[in-house]
Amino acid sequence: LSCLDLNTGAITDVADWSNADFVCNDMAYDYSSDCIYAMCRRIYTDEDLNFSIEYSTLLKVDPKTGKYTVAKDFLTDYSGLSNPVFLTLACDLQGNLYSINIAGQLVKFDKEKNFSQKIIGSTGMSPGKYLQCMDFDHETEKLYWAADYKNKVSNFCLVDTKTGHATEIGALGTDSRIAGLYIPFDLPADGAPGSAVDFTVNPAAKGELSASLSWTNPSQTFGNNALTSLTKVEVKRAGKVIKEFASPKPGEKMTFNDTSVPASGLYEYCVVATNAAGVGKSTTQEAWVGRDVP
Q: Is the pLDDT of residue 204 over 80?
């Protein structure tokens, strides 16, 4: 296990895993508990019956020492026919762990229930049993997957954490097998506002170039303490501020009609609150505004 300094490129060895009895598929940093989780492959061997099976195991790793413990062995069927096989691992800022399994399904793990698995839905893709990875963009909470399919075509995908559906957004080549995906981001200060909730974007009917937005201002700070005041709330379209609300109330329900959309297209809307401690956590939604194209 090694640590890479993104500023200098220097690599520091943390622990020697060369004799470990597993192969690491993907790793994810859990900012909520300051630890690393690793999705790995292990081999179970029955010496009496003289056969071996491969299974997935989830490790919890101390980032300072590299010491690890088994969080969950996904070995329930010793015939090897029905054990789940997980390929990737990612963790959002709330500590929720996600993986894509060999069936191409997005899975969420419940830490409170011994990492029980909830299948969110099919990605619509057919991943191969190859090295691949995924990570969250923590500024938008979007999940990205560097996928390697059974046909050895590799693509970069955006995965919907509500439905599991994956959308290909770029080509990565042939059998690329990318590992160690990381997306840089800036964390708000603990005292800065958390993200707005219940954010919706409703495009106008009949192809009109407008959209109705609604949300509830954050009521807690990014550090999960009560939020007492806000300096402003900004609404952005495609990264540009289109509306600013001065001194709104925490927890207040807000609405805004965007009537200045320049042309039909897919737009990303963002709502972000600010207080004396700084800019808070943004929340985003995408919507097609205007006339759609068949």
A: yes
Angstrom distances, CA of residue 167 to CA of 25, 122, 144: 22, 12, 10
Joined tokens for residue 214: 């609604």
Residues 223-243 pLDDT 10s: 889 999 999 999 999 999 999
Q: Which residue has the higher pLDDT, 79 or 285?
A: 285
Closest CA to 28 of 133, 131, 109, 114: 133
DSSP, collapsed to helix, strand or coil, labels residue 70 as strand
Q: How much is the pLDDT for 52?
A: 84
Dihedral angle at the C-alpha atoms of 111, 186, 286, 144, nearest 10 degrees? -60
If we measure between CA atoms, which residue out of 215, 221, 244 comes closest to residue 232? Answer: 244
Distance CA 24, CA 191 (A): 36
* Residue 74, φ and ψ in degrees, nearest 5: -95, 60
Its pTM stands at 0.77
Whether the per-residue pLDDT at 211 is higher than 90: the answer is yes
Closest CA to 263 of 243, 241, 288: 288
- Three-state secondary structure string covering 251-276: CCEEEEEECCCCCCEEEEEEEEEEEC
Give me the pLDDT at residue 10, please.
93
Token readout for 174 is 């042939």
The H or E element that residue 235 is part of is strand 232-237
248: tokens are 């709104």
* Strand, coil or helix: 108: strand
pLDDT at 190: 85
Look at the alpha carbons of 129, 78, 46, 37 in this order and tell me if their dihedral is positive or negative. positive
Which phi-psi region, left, alpha or beta, contains residue 164 (left: φ > 0; alpha: ψ -120 to 50)? left
Tokens of 29: 């940093």
Least confident range from 49-58, 64-73, 75-84, 265-274: namely 75-84
